[in-house]
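Dear all,

This email documents one entry for the complex benchmark we are building for the journal club exercise. For each entry we list the sequence lines for every component of the assembly. Then comes the predicted three-dimensional structure of the complex as a token string, followed by one or two observations. Please use this as the template for your own entries, and keep the labels exactly as they appear.
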Amino acid sequence: MTATLEPELGRARKRKEDARLITGRTRWTDNLTLPGMLHLAMLRSPVAHGNITAIDVEAAKRSPGVITVLTGRDLADEQGSLPTAWPITPDMKSPAHPSIAVDGVKFAGEIVVAVVARSDAEARDALDLIEVDYDDLPVVLDMEAALAEGADLVHPDLGTNRSALWVFDSGEVGSGGDVEDAIRDSEVVVKRRFRQQRLIPAFMEPRSVVMDPTGEQFTLWSSTQVPHIVRVMMALTLGVPEHKLRVIAPDVGGGFGGKLQFHPEEVLTFLVARRLGKPVKWTESRSESLVSGHHGRDQIQDITISANSDGTVTGLKVELMADMGAYLGLVTPGVPVLGAFMFNAIYKIPAYHFACTNVFTNKTWTDAYRGAGRPEATFGIERIMDELAVELAMEPLELREKNWISHEEFPYTTVSTLTYDSGNYEAATAKAKELFDYDGLRAEQRRRRESEDPVQLGIGISTFTEMCGLAPSRVLGSLSYGAGGWEHASIRMLPTGKVEVITGATPHGQGHETAWSQIVSDQLGVAFEDVEVLHGDTQISHKGMDTYGSRSLVVGGIAVVKAAEKVVEKARTVAAHMLEASEDDLEYERGRFTVKGTDKGTTVADVALAVFAAHDLPDGVEPSLDSDATFDPENFSFPHGTHLCATEVDTETGEVSIRQYVCVDDIGIVVNPVIVEGQIHGGLAQGIAQALYEEAVYDESGTLVTGTLADYLVPSAVDLPHFVTDRTETPSTTNPLGVKGVGEAGTIAATPAVVNAVLDAVRHLGVTDIQMPTTPQRVWRAINSARGEVKADAAGATEAAAGGGLGSIDANSDNGGGAR
Amino acid sequence: MIPAAFDYVAPTSIDDALEALRSAGDEAKVLGGGQSLLPVLRLRLAAPTTVVDLSKVSELRGLRDDGDEIVIGAMTTHHDVTRDPLVAEHAELIAAATRTVADPQIRHRGTFGGALVHADPAGDLLAPAVALDAEMVIAGSTGRRTVPASEFFVDFFTTAVAPDEILVEVRIPKHTGWGAHYEKFNRVAQAWSIVAVAAAVRTEGGSIAEARVALTNMASTPVRATGVEQALVGQRATEEAIRAAAQHAAEGTSPTTDGNADADYREHLARVLTGRAIATAAGVGS
């Protein structure tokens, strides 16, 4: 039977989990209903910074169905402080982070009162009956102003808005020269300021938490990426004994880093349920999600690059300000620091300096969002490479080629001290150019410029790499990260030949169940359908580090391989006994042991049945093939790719449309090309969204004005172009499958490719920068400003880029227009 | 996203609906397709005591030919408007604008009359109704009255329909053989218009005999671009003539500045988009 199985690695299987996920007939947290369950709703602060002077909850307490109403004072003694797992410097300033405000609020959206009622509607109704008085305090919104002498403070007890300064210097470390020397001695120096606007993860399934205190253990369901981390953090923060706590992430509808968090609502749902002795559910509305789930990006990047006149880059200096928002979340401080290793990208840069200042403001706290530090860095370097090309009057692809690591030079240790194991930037770029018709589009661009066509064409380039597989525990330790980066897997061989795979990498839409089944099918010679992948429950998957940091395949997937190898080794001993042969005489391939030179053989499945019976096992062999493995890789993996984007810019309206998008990604060996394609398409959508559509906008009082999905413009399929995707395949040399993981390829590469293309279309008109998202109005103003027709900030820095809202209804006001 | 509690009634006739509104008083809201009312209720921007759902009033649905006019029932869905041969033949401008409304799901729920009575100046159906000189038939306790589109829209979210009245149907003069185009400018497909232009023209022997132009989201109500219309009539249908006429597009408008666009940009867009809308309607240029 095993002989007829096709190899699974590389097979374009449809995902086995999709039917139930897409139809929604599955185990979303909000679908859970427990006997006697109560519902929790949160009243959130409309004020960005203020002291709470009075809270009147009497009317709410009398409201129908209400069980209890709790303020910060009621929970102050037991709520602890939400933890930060990444203290990036020894002197990092970290404020107390309450789940529910006690004395005052630091951002609009912070929880002030919690209401528990018999139904979700009754809980929601009661919120309207609560009166909270605030003494307004000055609001800190701008990072530069926050760092200025005498600035108003977000946390007066810290004495500063500067959380930390993290520095890497190649001269000091010895991985390169001194960047100031390089800048002084170079023929060309280009300095630019780029702005990474604030984004909102906007996962599809809103967050939801259910806590059941009625069993021997507390059971907490949460729509989270990280059930294992939530369990540990719950124990550390609240003092709950870890063995008395079970955390379950059932099916989870997206996260993008937004659910890589231990959040206030998890704490409060737990505390309220424990206090009442009854199951409690909290599910957020979309508006709540946008204002209170953590945000991402939000950096100001000052970048200086130096080069010789032939285009050889001599130095790179990066000075960042990163907006933490009001508090530090699980990995908030470390997100911009991850970029330190990615600004040098695929280039040989002799001298490098990176300094990141983390700043507090009265805004929703930031944390990981798709790519987490890597897209920001890639944007910075790919934008400045285009600026340098303009300065040098060089073709931008030639400039890149002159400076990138050539394929003969791998393994290559970069100026930021990472060792890239493999890559072939030449091959990916050549393929992309051909698919794109690079030369043809350049010719069309010239024609349009010469004819002064109202619609101009621009070409944007992004040649990128990323560090995938957030792991090597040693490396994480050296960065003061609060945990290791290993991953765990177990394999259980069932008597009927079926296989259960337990993974510590908790999926939230990626397709682990399919990919892990394919890997195990190949390793153990069992049918794809005969593999069941279990995950997301700390009582089933007792050990894990979960899913984020582009780590699932290259860490969790390899752990599965290692566990399978152990199963095979155990089975070999029993198979040799069954076949009356020496273990050394057995050959193993895809589930079948054969005695060398004979046609005698048996399968792992047959061995599993023999082990189950255990009637005739070799002496000293335990009756089990079950195995587990915990894998901690030696290095990151480094997928790379070349993305080319052609945009048409309507110079009369400023409208940008993507004419052609080609990406050639090298992610090493591929487990399932359909999953890869899906991951890249989704990533491109989010990368393009940052370039053209999305921005979390605050008004001067600190209110999030993009508080609905009518204002925060997440593009849909109809807004996006056809993607031409292709791959080159340079295997990773650091793991047995040769995989690198698809990571955040699309998200990382697309943003600079699109913005470079927009600028390339209007550069000849005198435009030098357009702030993201490059809205039609910003593009139009930039063109006018360059032509000297309108006095306006060329980068449009003064305008917001909110969407249109609900037509003319201001959804963020308390008394919007009527509607018939 | 749970609305405040309200009473719900679903009458099956216009008379019953009017009676329901009368007895509910000032705090009642009429529910058409729910594409505007439901978000507002769920955000708790409105909290009516009673919602009168018209979806079971079958006499409010459907389209018919009535001599020189076509008549569209207020509860006719956008989807049905876009598929109707009468609209395609006699009021293509209405169909063109309706096709740009949001997405298929919304067009299957949202209603023609509901969109008009909601009276959001960023909505897409107001300007075409004004451009084609539609007439709104309103039912109330004292019978029916007819209000021309030019007087129907009073302000943001405010129309000639009183709280105890219902829009029954819209009568649109036939514009058979006219060229029409709705030029919509927004940032993503499902967003409301930043600015849009509804244009219909009748050409005779290469010249523009008649023109109807109205603007979306350039004031608190839809704006008839009379300056553009006057400049077009009698002109040869050429790109130059159209572009010159379109320069009048922002006259008499008072666009807002919001997070989506500034007023001066909207005025600029009005001129550019008006030129494009008329050119397409007249079949001029690429």
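Observations: The longest strand of chain B covers residues 195-204. Residues 138 and 167 of chain B are 4 Å apart (CA to CA).
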